[in-house]
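Title: Prediction job returns without error message
Component: structure pipeline
Severity: low
Priority: P3
Assignee: unassigned

Description:
Job completed but the reporter wants confirmation the result is attached to the right record. Sequence as submitted:
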Amino acid sequence: MGILSADKFDKLPWFFGFMRPYFIPASICINSTTQAGYLAKVNVLINRFQKNSTYNAVLEIESPIFVSYVKDPSNQALLYSNCTAFVDGVKTAKLADKAAAIERKTIAQEIHLRFRRVSTDLTASEGPNELDSNEKLGHH
């Protein structure tokens, strides 16, 4: 079965017509109202998260490139002058944040393993010992 194009949805049974909104990607670039709405709502969220110290701490670690990109006045102007380029920039920023998160997770696993190795090396045992915490939570 091949990939369905948008024009073929008109010829499909009612179910696929009903499901059409889930198959055809939406775009913030459709008009200036959706562009402005996207920017406004994202900025409201960012500002709300930044006002809460707990959320801000996570935001600064998990999404710094995305936040920087969206808050940059040049990129905000780009949203209206070349929306596709803005969207590409958002995607790139999100991918960079995700790559950094993956790297942090890898480092955290290495840290956990090294702390765990201290007790296993000293006891010459890979089994649990009294220094182990709840391993399911990934704590050292």
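Comment from assignee: result matches the submitted record. Helices lie at 14-23, 32-51, 53-62, 64-71, 73-81, 83-123.
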